[in-house]
Amino acid sequence: MRGVRRTIAAWAGTTALVLVGTLTTTGCMGRYVRCGPEGDTPTGITADDLVGNWRGDPLGRLRLAADGTFTAEDWPVLDGFEKISKKTRGVAGKGTWDLEPGFGDDGKDDRNLVLDFADESSEGLLTQYDIAGDKGSLRIYAYSGDPDLCEFHTLTAA
Q1: Cβ distance 113 to 97 under 8 Å?
Q2: C-alpha span between 96 and 74 (Å, rounded)
Q3: What's the predicted TM-score (pTM) here?
Q4: Cβ pair 126, 112 in contact under 8 A
Q5: Which ranges of the chain would DSSP assign to H, the alpha helix?
Q6: CA 89, 79, 112, 43 torsion: positive or negative?
């Protein structure tokens, strides 16, 4: 009986090591682990803090209106894990936006900016952004490119 237990324990340990190794080397955990440079969501952020004009780097312009509508110009269209560059195709669009609770389970005041494009298919468009910085210098960002490389599409107030 003791030999059976050792075999089961060895099998379970090997399986766990293979699973952890696969998740960490294939990028399957990349979107769930903070990369570091983006920072935490400022405490007490409201939709009013986001109203205004935003400019992306290297492309994308966004106007968030107080009535919950937005217009976007030169908005990047991505194909899978494509990194945004000056060669990335951009489109114009409009729709509605909202500030929603984030997915953080760390008890912090996470918020996400969610864009709902009304006149474009949202396939290939970044539509959910995290928020970082402080109220005086906010940044909104989303992963673009390989999440293991921590590449972002970042917009700052214009």
Answers
A1: yes
A2: 17
A3: 0.72
A4: no
A5: 2-26
A6: negative
Give the number of other CB atoms < 10 A from CB of residue 89.
13
Burial of residue 48 (number of CB atoms within 10 Å: 0-12, 13-18, 19+): exposed
* Residue range 114-147, pLDDT digits in tens: 999 987 677 788 899 989 888 889 999 888 877 7
Count Cβ atoms below 10 Å from residue 157 Cβ, excluding itself: 15
Burial class (CB in 10 A: 0-12, 13-18, 19+), 156: middle
- Give the separation between CA 118 and CA 133, rounded to whole angstroms: 29
Partners of 111 in beta bridges: 101
Cβ-based burial of 142 (10 A; exposed 0-12, middle 13-18, buried ≥19): buried
